[in-house]
Amino acid sequence: FNGLITLREQYPNIPVGVVSGSDTVEVVAQVMSLGAQGFIPKVSQTREIAQAIVDIIGGKKWLPEGMEEELEKVDDELKVLLQRFRELTPKQIQVLSYLRAGLMNKQIAHEMNVTEATIKAHISAILRKLEINTRTQAVLLMDKLQLS
């Protein structure tokens, strides 16, 4: 989801539609909470994809048939989690991805070409924004939301 977050930050007025092979309600809810105007499953028919693109470019929200109702069923806890993740910066999400991969602070700092203190600051901000206490909890939340 890093690309979507970065795109929305750099070009907030451009309508964005996401095409994905994963069309679970959790993934669609995450995509929409991150500012996409539409979600198009990869298995969609050509005519449906074309209509989705027209609608999204025209400023309309577009979801596959029946998905709107499914999103309404998403429980309040999941909605709160999605909102909290939306507050993370692209760099913080990148740090989370490295944490999920099992890297230590020093390794993450090397990968991102920053100091270990910067990584510690990112992790502190992540924990604060997600309202959790440990790195493990952050990784478990990513897994729960099916974030990669």
Strands of the widest sheet, in order across it, are: 1-2
Spans with pLDDT under 50 lasting ≥5 residues?
A: none
Query: How would a textbook summarize the main sheet?
Result: 2 strands, parallel
> What's the average pLDDT?
89
Task: Write the element-wise H/E pattern from the N-terminal end onward.
Answer: HEHEHHHHHHH
Name of the CATH superfamily of the largest domain: Response regulator
Shape: elongated
**What is the beta-strand fraction?**
5-15%
User: How many helices?
Assistant: 9
**In terms of structural class, how would the helical and strand content be classed?**
mainly alpha
Tell me roughly what share of residues is in helical segments.
55-70%
Q: Tell me the count of domains.
A: 2
Number of strands: 2
Keywords: DNA-binding
GO molecular function: DNA binding
Protein name: HTH luxR-type domain-containing protein
Organism: marine metagenome
Write the layout of secondary structure elements.
Layout: H1 2-10, E1 17-20, H2 25-33, E2 38-41, H3 46-57, H4 67-72, H5 76-86, H6 90-100, H7 105-112, H8 116-130, H9 135-144
Parallel strand pairs: 1-2
Helix pairs in contact: 2-5, 6-8, 6-9, 7-8
Key descriptive features of the protein:
CheY-like_superfamily, mainly alpha, Rossmann fold, 2 strands, elongated, Sig_transdc_resp-reg_receiver, two-stranded parallel ribbon, 148 residues, 5% strand, Arc Repressor Mutant, subunit A
Q: What does this protein structure show overall?
A:
Pfam families: GerE (PF00196). It comes from marine metagenome. GO terms for molecular function: DNA binding. Keywords: DNA-binding. The chain is mainly alpha-helical and 148 residues long. It has two domains: 72 residues, 3-Layer(aba) Sandwich (Rossmann fold); 65 residues, Winged helix-like DNA-binding domain superfamily/Winged helix DNA-binding domain (Arc Repressor Mutant, subunit A, Orthogonal Bundle), CATH 1.10.10.10. It is 61% helix and 5% strand. The chain has a two-stranded parallel sheet with strand order 1-2. Strand 1, helix 2 and strand 2 form a beta-alpha-beta unit. The longest helix is centred in the C-terminal third of the chain and has 15 residues. The chain starts with a helix and ends with a helix. The relative contact order is 0.14. The model has no long low-confidence stretch (mean pLDDT 89).
